[in-house]
Amino acid sequence: MQHSQYGKQFEACSLEFLPPSTQEGMEKFLASGLLRGVGPSTAKKLMAAFGERVFQVMEHSPQDLQSIPGIGPAKGEKIAQSYKEHQHVQRLMVFLQSYGIGLALGLKLYRTYGEEAIRILQHQPYRLATDVSGIGFRTADKIAKTLGIPHDSPERIRAGIAYLLQQALDDGHVCMPFDSLFAKVRTELQVPHLHADEAFSLMQQIKELAVERDATGRLSVYLRPYLAMEEYVAQWFFDKIQGPGQGFAGAECIQHDQSVESLLSSEQMQAVTEAFSTPVLILTGGPGTGKTTTIRAILQVALQLGWQTVLAAPTGRAAKRLTETTGAPAKTIHRLLEYGQVEGAGGQFARHANHPLDGDLFIIDEVSMLDLQMFYYLLRALPPHGRLLLVGDQNQLPSVGPGQILKDLLDSKTVPSVTLTTVFRQAQASLIVENAYRVLHGQMIRKGGREDNCFFLPVHDLDQMEQLLLELVRTRLPAFLQLDDPYDSYEHIQVLAPMRKGRFGVERFNHLLQEAINPFAHGKREIRAQGITFRIGDKVLQTKNEYEKDVFNGDIGRIVDVDAEDGRMTVLFPDQRTVEYEQHEFDMLQHAYAMTIHKSQGSEYPIVILPMVMEHAILLQRQMFYTALTRARRLAVIVGQEAAVKRAIATSKIAHRYTNLAERLRREC
Ligand SMILES: Nc1ncnc2c1ncn2[C@@H]1O[C@H](COP(=O)(O)OP(=O)(O)OP(=O)(O)O)[C@@H](O)[C@H]1O
């Protein structure tokens, strides 16, 4: 077209990436790390051997790559495969660029749909929202809009409802009341004219959803598996509680065991007795109330009775701690249920109703962290005669996943429980424990002094605060621990922050602390991915359950090897296992010098540093503060604005979670 002012203009009707055509450009491309198995030195060798033909060789005669020393059949195949993938992904990226989808998500799309990706995007854009983690309904919606799918099409609203429910699950809800969900459909999906009965009928058409009406006529909407799990859990308790009594097994044994009896308070004795007389028992109590001591006594009695006991906890760190404190082996629930050990069906639990666990008494610790799904899998795997003892602190933050199992079981008042209330002398002398209870009761913490295991360092100036925090990690606390090298302190010191973002958030701290503790050095290999530099020696956190690698959300390790050329790193975990990660798996790792309080649940650290600033206002909350404080074993250091500490203590509201478990238990038991 001819523009009046600027002359001839073009309109682009298609866009294609062309591979670089000069030798220099080709080598640069090859050396960039985009292709797996090729780094700068292999790039040089490839160019020297094939010159401008290098791309043709990769595409049409990959076997020729093997003529280069160091490239065997496997590596040659990997390079050729990676080149092919790269070409597909590039075509896909051209298509995706107008939707604001970057390379990482583009790669995920490619991994999910392969060469079908563009076709699916064009014809069933809403599939993306459910199939590809990281691409939500919003992005799928943007694509659908440009394809001309109407705003109020049933297809769109159905995908939107599933998305809203998924969001609710991510926020910890098991279901949504129909009215709240309907309101969200109208506002968040922007279909204000939709009627309730239309929405209701759309929900019933979605096979993934279940709509349930309770006795009072209230409607709840579930993603179907969650309703089934909630029903299963309620039925399990009904069968246990209403089922034939299993008798009182160990009365004489307990009463005649002086070593047990003389050690325990009457509350603890009651817990021990009930653990052997009821098929299921909840044992709760705050820090220092003797939960672990009670578990030890129960184990001792069980041993005398010849009962087989099985101990487990929701996370690896919690299981490790349970082993340390009781002296009895404990596993994660995943390991206990033998995740992924089913022939030909990776990702399944090998233990379930048809192949239950062996054992007489199952003791599960840190139950506050159990979500509905995990609890369901656990109950399903217990043998019919198995007794269950659930131990936890109801004031800890609830599980990351949906549900609030411990709270619901207690609220239902249908499950036998013992609450330990006495804080024992040794624990009373601890300011960590005292301050934890102060927080719980809404009282200001005591600042603490030299002799105490908890102190609060108030600061007014945030620049000064940053310096102080770095100084604590770099010099003051390593000196306290009598460590020569602050690098070693990383195992002992854990910074916990309420939020990821912001000046005093986890991400920035991780950056600062990496520079302070494990800075760049010549010869120390590193690799950059998703804006993070991973360096040999870094402390890293696994952020999701990865059964195939046998590593789980919350596991902490240390990077022991980095291969930038091949896009790999190796992490050593505390049980001396090394795990390899490829470039596309790096997103499941983060630095762990600092982590969120949520992620720290169920773990303990010798020293905890807790930055508290008003910037975190929305998360300054009693339960959060309490959870963070009780993670410290030897020392808790709170650094920050007094107003922020006061605000956290004053804010007791606990986010409500939609679940019908308590109600269901009341109805059924
Ligand atoms: N009956 C008791 N008499 C005297 N001391 C006790 C008694 N029970 C527990 N203790 C002591 O109280 C302290 C805390 O006990 P324990 O570790 O069992 O509590 P806990 O509830 O598991 O604590 P936390 O949740 O903080 O780990 C320990 O030093 C323990 O020896």
Write up this protein:
There is one protein chain. With 669 residues, this protein is of the alpha/beta class. The longest helix is centred in the N-terminal third of the chain and has 24 residues, at 73-96. The N and C termini lie far apart (77 Å). Adenosine-5'-triphosphate (ATP) is lined by residues 263-265, 268, 285, 287-293, 424, 426-427.
Rg calc: 29 Å
Q: What is the spatial order of strands in the main beta sheet?
A: 8-7-9-10-6-11
- Main sheet, how many strands, which sense, barrel? 6 strands, parallel
Number of helices: 28
Portion in helices: 40-55%
**Content-based structural category:** alpha/beta
**Fraction of residues in β-strands:** 15-25%
Give the terminus-to-terminus CA distance.
77 Å
**Each distinct ligand:** adenosine-5'-triphosphate
Shape: globular
Extended strand count: 23
The residue-averaged pLDDT reads 87
Domain AAA+ ATPase: 277-575
Binding site for ATP: 288-292
EC number: 5.6.2.3
Catalytic activity: ATP + H2O = ADP + phosphate + H(+)
